[in-house]
Amino acid sequence: MTTVVFEALRMRRRRTRRSRGFGVTGIVATAVVGLAVLAALLAPVIAPYDPNEVDFGLTYRPMEPWALLGTDGSGRDILSRLLYGARTSLLGPAVVVLVAAVVGTLLALVAAISGGWVDRILSRIFDIGFAFPGLLLAILAVSVLGPGFTTAVLALAIAYIPFIARIVRSVAVGEMSLPYLSALVTVGQSRTRIAGRHLLPAVMPTVLAQSTISFGYAMVDLAALSFLGLGVQPPDADWGLMISEGQRGVLQGYWEEATFAGLAIVIVVAAVSLIGDRLADRVSLNREGR
């Protein structure tokens, strides 16, 4: 009797979570990310000033009507630099996640559909890559190849491939054990066809959820690389670089540049993480309901 009651409660919670969808928090998070993307796309139109225009006569001005967020140590408008900085701060993680998701998913499908020694070798490679922090690998790569936005993005994308591939491979292996896929293999259908028509659509929700979560991590990592001087280079605008450049102002009592750039990163990362959590919940609920 107790087991029946617990099962009924579990099914009720599951239906409630499904009907709730993204919820208010998810909708707000999506709106925040949408506004950030819109600001990045429209930066040349809505930015009040040239983000790289230097005027040493206007250094460290407080927030005023003509400079809503003040100016930095070079007299540049902070609001304009935040708007332009959204472009590299959002584009970089998007490229990292796109490359890692595409390559990682392909490798995961190869491992799941091949099985045997291919799966064992790829799984060991995924485990080894997963054991090393992505930021550390990116720092090593950038140190060898030289600093810059492109180098940092590519290095971090390579570091993220095992992270996504490992998770997608576990889902794909579970799918391959299902009766309908086992039957297709038994009747001699091409493994490539099985992977493309059946396995890939089955793992795509997991890929999407994991990519969304990884976006936040990639954004923080790229900001850290720019902060260390290994990512976006001056005078280009980038939120991580603005925090680094704003350190001098904080020591002198001018907190605006570093604080607003840091808040931008925190808000966007938190919003993307909430969206990723909602997507992951929906994926797990769909798998439970199968």
| Helix-and-strand structural type | mainly alpha
- CATH homologous superfamily heading: MetI-like
Q: Give the proportion of residues in helices.
A: over 70%
- Per DSSP E runs of 2 or more residues, the count of β-strands stands at 0
Count of helix runs: 11
CATH architecture: Orthogonal Bundle
Which parts are unreliable, with pLDDT below 50 for 5 consecutive residues or more? 1-9
InterPro entries: BP-dependent_transpt_permease, MetI-like, MetI-like_sf, OppC_N
Membrane topology: Multi-pass membrane protein
Family: Belongs to the binding-protein-dependent transport system permease family.
Domain ABC transmembrane type-1: 86-276
Detailed description of the structure:
It is a single chain. The protein is mainly alpha-helical and 290 residues long. It has one domain (2-43, 87-288): MetI-like fold (Orthogonal Bundle), CATH 1.10.3720. Helix content is 78%, strand content 0%. The radius of gyration is 23 Å and the shape is elongated. The chain starts with a helix and ends with a helix. 39% of the residues are buried. The chain crosses the membrane at residues 21-47, 90-113, 125-145, 151-168, 199-220, 258-280. InterPro entries: BP-dependent_transpt_permease (IPR050366), MetI-like (IPR000515), MetI-like_sf (IPR035906), OppC_N (IPR025966).
